[in-house]
Amino acid sequence: MNERRKTFGPAPGSTDDLGAGDFKPRPIARPDPEAARRVAEEGGYGSGASVRAPSDTQRRYRTGRNAQLNLKVTPENRARFAAMADEAGISMNELFERAVDALDRKDKS
């Protein structure tokens, strides 16, 4: 056999037909959106809206700050820092700047 087998169709020299020419795809079954919603709610998945824990709230402010400072901290200290910013009603950036300024003033006196 010097001929290569074709991907679709019988092997060269063979009379064996796979019958792919008679293939007819079946229609796509569309699920009922209302039934899917019911099943999701029964499974405790709700409406699908993302819900964040309060400690993971994104705090985004347009401030003109464009340099990034990454710190590895314990989860407890991060939670304390976020709580301090929330209590003061300021961003975490502002709290950091105030803390640095206060430390700087303390060191100079």
TrEMBL record:
Q: Where is the segment annotated Disordered?
A: 1-68
Q: Output compositional bias ranges, type Basic and acidic residues.
A: 23-41
This chain's protein is named Stability/partitioning determinant
